[in-house]
Each structure stands twice: as C-alpha cells, then as structure tokens.
Amino acid sequence: MTVHANQVFTDAEAIARLQRTIELLPNDAHVQLEMDNGEQVLGIVSARPMTQVFIDPKGIEGTNAVLRLVDPAMDHPERAGWREVWVGEIRAVRRLDPDRQLGEAAAPAPGGAPSKN
User: Is 27 left (phi over 0), alpha (psi -120 to 50) or beta?
Assistant: First the structure.
C-alpha cells in the first residue's frame, strides 16, 4: 500500500468524520457511494477500512483510509474485479443489501464532505 495520499486530514473533527463514515462500511455490505466529485460507485465492501497515516503532496502527514470494493458484476461479468476509493472522498453511503443494519436507506457521510487541508 502506498504511503502517499492526495488528501489527508489532521484535525480531530475531520478524523472523527472519517471514523463515522467507516462505521457505515461493514464487511460484505453492498453499497452505493456518492463521492465528492459526484461520481456514484457501487460495490461490496471487502473489509471495513481502517484509518492510517499518509503523506500528502505537500509533505504533510495526516489521516485517511482506503476502502476496497469488490464489483461482482453480475450483470456485466467483464467488469468483475475490485476498486479502491479514499474514504475521505465519500460524501454519502447508501446500503443496498436487503438486511442492511442502518436505520435509514441512505446516510450522508457524517458532516458531509470532510474538510480538506
């Protein structure tokens, strides 16, 4: 895994938002993510992400997390594989699996988009 990230978080509030977003991403959950750039990403959480220390392009050390999503591509087998996304870029998480444990069908990433340094 790389030690570099395009974006890291250093203040306690932003790191707490990362942790709350991670809580919305349990193992094997089928999710639809809305990213900060508006992209919609679908997949199955291969393992709940963990916050880690990374270095941004300015050399600042901070926190972020990487989420690995599996795309089983039932409708499009040619796309089967996995994808990694930065948890700090997730704006909202929507559970798609029938036995979701969230009280709501969709949950914004706590506090919306995390503040950037």
Answer: beta
Indicate the helix (H) or strand (E) that contains 16. Answer: helix 12-23
* CA distance linking residue 78 with residue 99, whole number of Å: 27
**Tokens encoding 7:** 């974006």
In the chain, at which residue ranges do the beta strands (DSSP E only) sit? 30-35, 40-45, 52-55, 61-64, 66-71, 81-86, 90-95, 106-108
Give the number of residues written for the chain.
Answer: 117
Overall pTM surpassing 0.90 (yes/no):
no
- Residue 15, φ and ψ in degrees, nearest 5: -65, -40
How far apart CA 9 and CA 46 sit, in angstroms, is 24
**C-alpha 15, offset from chain centre:** 13
pLDDT averaged per 10 residues, the chain (length 117): 88 97 95 96 94 96 96 73 94 85 52 48
Nearest to 67 by CA among 32, 113, 117, 99: 32
Q: Which two tokens stand for residue 55?
A: 């270095």
